[in-house]
Amino acid sequence: MKILILTNYANGLYLFRKELLQTFSEDGHKVYVSLPPDENADKLKGLCRIIKTPFDRRGVNPVKDLGLFMAYLRMIRKRKPDVVLTYTIKPNLYGGLACRIKKVPYLCNVTGLGTAIESGGLLSKILLRFYSVSMKGARRVFFQNMRNRDFMNKNGIALENNALLPGSGVNLTEHPLREYPAEEKNVRFLAVIRIMKDKGIEEYLEAARIVKKRHKNVKFHLVGEYEEETRELYEPQIEALAEEKIIKYYGHIDNVEEVMAKSHIIVHPSYHEGLSNVLLEAAACGRPVLASDVSGCVETFVDGESGFAFESKSTDALVGAMEKMLALSHEERRQMGIAGRAWVEKNFDRNIIIKTYQNELKEIKGEKR
């Protein structure tokens, strides 16, 4: 089959779906991927044919978005795909609508709803109406957590064609269980997040400042890239904390596991998620987690057994969770990490996602014969 994938970020596709691309190729399919060009696109060479499609991931310029929709229509007309897979908001909306118009089978993956929808208001109503139209013709709309699915179903979207997937899953071979580090010198917290408000950066920075005053042997590490619109706000804060030796900031790195394996506790203070890849990889690595009590996070661990949940958007709650984790012994934290590994092995193996897509493609191929 000829498969066209529409997405908004090359590195995300590479990190979390390269095994799916490899499987498609091994199954004899021809794979095209449409995405905005950046330095990460080269990572996908050999896995697919890349169609560079410029668009603003976060902007709401209607003229630019119309251009993206028209680009998708032209792309479908030119490539004549047998099936289209869409990921993230704009590809789901504009790509889904283009597929519906062109009568091409398509599968949507809702990786998260985003603040614009969840905050309510006029923009939320417009987006929900758009989702209703664009996803009505989808063969399947995959959601990554029940809350997102129920919210969309309540608004009349994907009532008959929805399914749940365990996020992007985790490659259990690439992310093996790592030996839990010794704690004689210090205990290391690590957050791997995009530097933006909705990922809980403000709470993490403030909690680090508070807890560091109480526990001199605790270290706080941070991995993640700035969103351009947030750099001016957060860069001075992070640089100041780095100078005070409160935070060690790595910036964006490709191999997060190297830092994760040297850490003792992974913190994820996000306000909302589709399903957190960071928490899945932390559990696979064998690290206990502290995570916001929101859908997309709480599914990835067992509260009290492999981590602790805390109220989102609350520095006090995060500090409390950190103190709760620090009150445990080294062996208790290590055992939490082992329990987390067992949980993802049972529920979040990436092969589950691959087999689901393979089955969908088999059905579509069978109908085309």
**Could you say which overall geometry the principal axes of the C-alpha atoms support?**
globular
Low-confidence stretches: none
Please give the number of β-strands: 13
First-to-last CA distance? 12 Å
Radius of gyration: 21 Å
Biggest pleated-sheet summary: 7 strands, parallel
Write the element-wise H/E pattern from the N-terminal end onward: EHEEHEHEHHEHEEHEHEHEHEEHHH
Quick check: average pLDDT? 94
Task: Note the beta-strand portion.
Answer: 15-25%
Helicity range: 40-55%
Q: Total number of helical segments?
A: 13
Task: Please list the strands of the largest sheet in the order they lie side by side.
Answer: 3-2-1-4-5-6-7
Structural class: alpha/beta
Can you walk me through this structure?
It contains 13 helices and 13 strands. It has helices at 10-26, 62-79, 89-102, 115-118, 122-135, 146-154, 201-214, 228-243, 256-261, 277-285, 315-326, 330-347, 350-368, and strands at residues 2-6, 30-35, 49-52, 83-87, 106-110, 140-143, 162-164, 187-192, 218-223, 247-251, 265-268, 289-292, 307-310. It has a seven-stranded parallel sheet with strand order 3-2-1-4-5-6-7, sandwiched between helices. It is globular. The termini are close together. The model has no long low-confidence stretch (mean pLDDT 94).
Task: Using brief descriptors, characterize the structure shown.
single chain, 369 residues, alpha/beta, seven-stranded parallel sheet, six-stranded parallel sheet, globular
